[in-house]
Amino acid sequence: MPHGDPDPEDPLALAGVECPGSPAHSREMARAFAEEFARLGWPQARILGLFLNPFYTGPHLALRQLGEEAVRLIVEEALLIHGG
């Protein structure tokens, strides 16, 4: 098979799927992102910048679905718990 053509039999081929979501799913996703970067020692402004930047699709989608104030509260909570 020529280079670049997808092989349907390749078990290691990357495949993207879309999953249905809800506000609860978006909240959990935002919490996971916030906790991850809080554990890395990022300050609040830098974590919020991640959510505000459309380049970061997952965090930005959560921000669009939940609103900036809800995401700000999630980030603050993550920093209280994991920020040290």
What report would you give on this structure?
With 84 residues, the chain is an all-alpha fold. Helix content is 61%, strand content 0%. The chain has four helices and no strands. Helix 2 (44-52) runs antiparallel to helix 4. The longest helix has 17 residues, at 23-39. The protein is elongated, with a radius of gyration of 17 Å.
Please give a quick description of this structure:
With 84 residues, the chain is mostly helical.
Give a topology summary:
Blueprint: H1 23-39, H2 44-52, H3 57-66, H4 68-82
Helix pairs in contact: 1-3, 1-4, 2-4, 3-4
H/E series: HHHH
Task: Report the sheet-strand fraction.
Answer: under 5%
Mean pLDDT reading: 88
Helix content: 55-70%
Number of helices: 4
Radius of gyration: 17 Å
End-to-end gap: 52 Å
Contiguous low-pLDDT stretches (5 residues minimum) are none
- Note the main sheet: none
Category from helices, strands and their pairing: mainly alpha
What is the approximate shape? elongated
How many strand units? 0
Keywords:
0% strand; 4 helices; mainly alpha
